[in-house]
Amino acid sequence: VARLTAIDAVSHAVESAVCTRRNAVSSMHSREAFVRLAAGVEAVLDGSATPDDRASVLLGAAFAGMAIENSMLGAAHATANPLTARHGLAHGHAVALTLPAVVRWNLGEPAAAAVYRDLGSHLGEPLADWLERIIAAAGLSEAPGLDLDEPEIGRLAELAAAQWTGRFNPRPMERRDLAAIYRSLPGIHVAS
Ligand SMILES: [Fe+2]
């Protein structure tokens, strides 16, 4: 539960930071959330967390919630929710799969890319690389047994396109873009 909710909290900080409803109040909370989450999340994920690490992640998660309250989320949640609804993935696992791909997509939007650079400025590596690394290290970049065929990719993309939260993604996604995200997810094997 701690690992999945920690990744979810990171996704809340990252998505609220770039969504089209971001503003001065939400951005302040997103950034403060991310700094605290980044300080402790790797230790939470690998099981070595001290009480201080857990406190940092808990406070970061709370600040990320305040960021959402003042803004919105984005396409990582829009694409994750159908995986939970149709395939039973825990929310944190579904977001762990979709978030890195959505961050890479959003790098095509200059203002979002600038926010990501700011968030990642103390990580020592680009935000998308850091996310992929910590998620893989936590064993959350695979979804065992999740074999999707093209009709199912289409259904998932249709459901993702209908998700309210996806409308606030900084770089708009059409249904074909959402389908491409599903095809690109690590550990998902698409039968033709
Ligand atoms: Fe979430």
Provide the fold topology:
Elements: H1 2-18, H2 24-46, H3 51-70, H4 75-87, H5 91-106, H6 110-119, H7 127-137, E1 147-149, H8 150-161, H9 175-184, E2 189-191
Parallel strand pairs: 1-2
Relevant terms:
single chain; about 190 residues; mainly alpha; two-stranded parallel ribbon; 9 helices; 2 strands; binds fe (ii) ion
Describe it for me?
It is a single chain. Helices cover 69% and strands 3% of the residues. The protein is built from nine helices and two strands, in the order αααααααβααβ. The protein has a two-stranded parallel sheet with strand order 1-2. α1 runs parallel beside α5 and α2 (24-46) runs antiparallel to α3 (51-70). It binds fe (ii) ion.
Structure ligands = fe (ii) ion
What does the average pLDDT come to? 95
Shape: globular
Strand content: under 5%
Q: Helicity, in percent?
A: 55-70%
Rg from alpha-carbon coordinates: 16 Å
Largest sheet: 2 strands, parallel
- The assigned structural class equals mainly alpha
| N-to-C series of helices and strands | HHHHHHHEHHE
Strand order of the largest sheet: 1-2
How many helices? The count is 9
First-to-last CA distance = 35 Å
Model regions low in confidence, pLDDT < 50 over at least 5 residues: none
Number of strands: 2
